[in-house]
Amino acid sequence: MTTAELEQALALRNCAIVQDGDRFALVYPHGYELRKRAHDLGAINRPAALAEAWAWLHPDLSNAESVRKVAAVVAGDFGVTVEDLAARDRSEPLATARRVAFALARELTNAPLAVIGDLFGRDHGTVIHAVDSVRDQCDTSAAFAARVGTLRAVCATALQSS
User: pLDDT means per 10 residues in the chain (162 residues)?
Assistant: First the structure.
Protein backbone atom coordinates (compact mmCIF):
# COMPACT_ATOMS: atom_id res chain seq x y z
CA MET A 1 0.00 0.00 0.00
CA THR A 2 1.37 3.38 -0.96
CA THR A 3 1.33 6.44 1.26
CA ALA A 4 -1.43 7.96 -0.87
CA GLU A 5 -3.55 4.79 -0.62
CA LEU A 6 -3.05 4.70 3.13
CA GLU A 7 -4.05 8.32 3.52
CA GLN A 8 -7.14 7.67 1.39
CA ALA A 9 -8.05 4.69 3.60
CA LEU A 10 -7.61 6.89 6.67
CA ALA A 11 -9.91 9.51 5.16
CA LEU A 12 -12.61 6.89 4.53
CA ARG A 13 -12.49 6.07 8.25
CA ASN A 14 -12.61 9.77 9.22
CA CYS A 15 -9.02 9.56 10.48
CA ALA A 16 -6.18 11.88 9.65
CA ILE A 17 -2.45 12.25 10.05
CA VAL A 18 -1.85 15.76 11.29
CA GLN A 19 1.51 17.54 11.10
CA ASP A 20 2.56 20.25 13.54
CA GLY A 21 6.11 21.30 12.74
CA ASP A 22 8.19 18.14 12.98
CA ARG A 23 5.55 16.28 14.98
CA PHE A 24 2.85 14.00 13.63
CA ALA A 25 -0.27 12.64 15.25
CA LEU A 26 -3.00 10.26 14.20
CA VAL A 27 -6.43 11.65 14.91
CA TYR A 28 -9.21 9.10 15.31
CA PRO A 29 -12.92 9.93 15.42
CA HIS A 30 -13.77 7.76 18.43
CA GLY A 31 -12.52 6.02 21.55
CA TYR A 32 -10.40 7.36 24.41
CA GLU A 33 -7.76 4.66 23.93
CA LEU A 34 -7.25 5.54 20.29
CA ARG A 35 -7.11 9.26 21.01
CA LYS A 36 -4.57 8.61 23.75
CA ARG A 37 -2.49 6.52 21.35
CA ALA A 38 -2.74 9.31 18.78
CA HIS A 39 -1.40 11.72 21.38
CA ASP A 40 1.45 9.30 22.15
CA LEU A 41 2.51 9.51 18.50
CA GLY A 42 3.23 13.23 18.88
CA ALA A 43 7.01 12.92 19.00
CA ILE A 44 7.62 10.37 16.26
CA ASN A 45 8.18 10.71 12.54
CA ARG A 46 5.75 10.27 9.66
CA PRO A 47 6.82 6.71 8.67
CA ALA A 48 6.12 5.52 12.20
CA ALA A 49 2.78 7.35 12.23
CA LEU A 50 1.91 5.65 8.94
CA ALA A 51 2.97 2.29 10.38
CA GLU A 52 0.64 2.85 13.33
CA ALA A 53 -2.18 3.71 10.93
CA TRP A 54 -1.41 0.59 8.89
CA ALA A 55 -1.56 -1.62 11.99
CA TRP A 56 -4.88 -0.10 13.01
CA LEU A 57 -6.38 -0.49 9.53
CA HIS A 58 -5.38 -4.15 9.23
CA PRO A 59 -6.90 -5.99 12.19
CA ASP A 60 -6.42 -9.34 10.43
CA LEU A 61 -3.32 -9.89 12.56
CA SER A 62 -4.21 -10.87 16.08
CA ASN A 63 -2.81 -8.63 18.80
CA ALA A 64 -0.71 -11.46 20.18
CA GLU A 65 0.81 -12.29 16.79
CA SER A 66 1.71 -8.65 16.21
CA VAL A 67 3.37 -8.40 19.61
CA ARG A 68 5.32 -11.61 18.92
CA LYS A 69 6.61 -10.16 15.63
CA VAL A 70 7.81 -7.02 17.41
CA ALA A 71 9.43 -9.18 20.11
CA ALA A 72 11.23 -11.29 17.49
CA VAL A 73 12.70 -8.23 15.78
CA VAL A 74 13.85 -6.67 19.06
CA ALA A 75 15.24 -9.96 20.38
CA GLY A 76 17.24 -10.48 17.19
CA ASP A 77 18.71 -6.99 17.37
CA PHE A 78 19.77 -7.43 21.00
CA GLY A 79 21.14 -10.96 20.42
CA VAL A 80 18.64 -12.73 22.69
CA THR A 81 15.69 -15.03 22.04
CA VAL A 82 12.00 -14.27 22.41
CA GLU A 83 11.94 -16.85 25.20
CA ASP A 84 14.69 -14.88 26.97
CA LEU A 85 12.46 -11.80 26.88
CA ALA A 86 9.83 -13.68 28.88
CA ALA A 87 12.35 -14.99 31.42
CA ARG A 88 12.63 -13.54 34.93
CA ASP A 89 16.26 -12.55 34.30
CA ARG A 90 16.92 -8.83 34.82
CA SER A 91 20.47 -8.72 33.49
CA GLU A 92 21.56 -6.42 30.68
CA PRO A 93 21.08 -6.37 27.71
CA LEU A 94 18.04 -8.58 28.37
CA ALA A 95 16.19 -6.07 30.55
CA THR A 96 16.73 -3.28 28.03
CA ALA A 97 15.63 -5.51 25.15
CA ARG A 98 12.46 -6.39 27.07
CA ARG A 99 11.67 -2.74 27.79
CA VAL A 100 12.19 -1.80 24.13
CA ALA A 101 9.97 -4.70 23.02
CA PHE A 102 7.23 -3.53 25.40
CA ALA A 103 7.49 0.07 24.19
CA LEU A 104 7.45 -0.80 20.49
CA ALA A 105 4.65 -3.33 20.90
CA ARG A 106 2.61 -0.66 22.64
CA GLU A 107 3.39 1.90 19.96
CA LEU A 108 3.00 -0.22 16.83
CA THR A 109 0.19 -2.64 17.68
CA ASN A 110 -3.37 -2.35 18.89
CA ALA A 111 -2.63 -4.78 21.70
CA PRO A 112 -3.88 -3.77 25.14
CA LEU A 113 -1.29 -3.41 27.89
CA ALA A 114 -2.52 -6.62 29.52
CA VAL A 115 -1.98 -8.64 26.32
CA ILE A 116 1.54 -7.28 25.89
CA GLY A 117 2.38 -8.03 29.50
CA ASP A 118 0.84 -11.52 29.42
CA LEU A 119 2.96 -12.55 26.45
CA PHE A 120 6.07 -11.75 28.50
CA GLY A 121 4.80 -13.04 31.84
CA ARG A 122 4.39 -9.52 33.20
CA ASP A 123 1.47 -7.31 34.22
CA HIS A 124 0.23 -4.15 32.54
CA GLY A 125 1.96 -1.91 35.11
CA THR A 126 5.33 -3.30 34.08
CA VAL A 127 4.54 -2.45 30.46
CA ILE A 128 3.62 1.12 31.41
CA HIS A 129 6.87 1.50 33.36
CA ALA A 130 8.88 0.10 30.43
CA VAL A 131 7.28 2.48 27.94
CA ASP A 132 8.07 5.44 30.19
CA SER A 133 11.60 4.16 30.79
CA VAL A 134 12.34 3.81 27.07
CA ARG A 135 10.92 7.28 26.39
CA ASP A 136 13.15 8.76 29.13
CA GLN A 137 16.23 6.91 27.90
CA CYS A 138 15.57 8.10 24.33
CA ASP A 139 15.44 11.67 25.66
CA THR A 140 18.84 11.34 27.33
CA SER A 141 20.75 9.18 24.83
CA ALA A 142 20.86 9.98 21.13
CA ALA A 143 22.46 6.61 20.37
CA PHE A 144 19.69 4.75 22.17
CA ALA A 145 17.03 6.89 20.45
CA ALA A 146 18.59 6.08 17.07
CA ARG A 147 18.62 2.36 17.86
CA VAL A 148 14.97 2.44 18.94
CA GLY A 149 14.09 4.43 15.82
CA THR A 150 15.74 1.84 13.60
CA LEU A 151 13.98 -0.97 15.44
CA ARG A 152 10.67 0.91 15.11
CA ALA A 153 11.09 1.05 11.33
CA VAL A 154 12.08 -2.62 11.08
CA CYS A 155 9.15 -3.68 13.27
CA ALA A 156 6.73 -1.57 11.23
CA THR A 157 7.99 -3.20 8.05
CA ALA A 158 7.65 -6.68 9.59
CA LEU A 159 4.07 -5.92 10.63
CA GLN A 160 3.19 -4.53 7.20
CA SER A 161 4.65 -7.47 5.26
CA SER A 162 2.38 -10.03 6.85
Answer: 60 59 53 42 50 53 80 96 91 93 91 83 90 95 95 92 70
- Of the three residues 9, 35, 57, the one that is the final residue of a domain is 57
> Residue type for 10, please?
L
CATH number at residue 108: 1.10.1750.10
Please give the model's pTM, rounded to 2 decimal places. Answer: 0.62
- How far is it, in rounded angstroms, from Cα 111 to Cα 118? 11
CB 49 within 8 A of CB 17: yes
Helix, strand, coil percentages, rounded to 5, for the chain: 70, 5, 25
Domain range holding 157?
Answer: 61-162
Per-residue burial over 59-80, b = 16 or more CB atoms within 10 Å of its CB, e = otherwise: eebebeebbbbbbbbbbebbeb
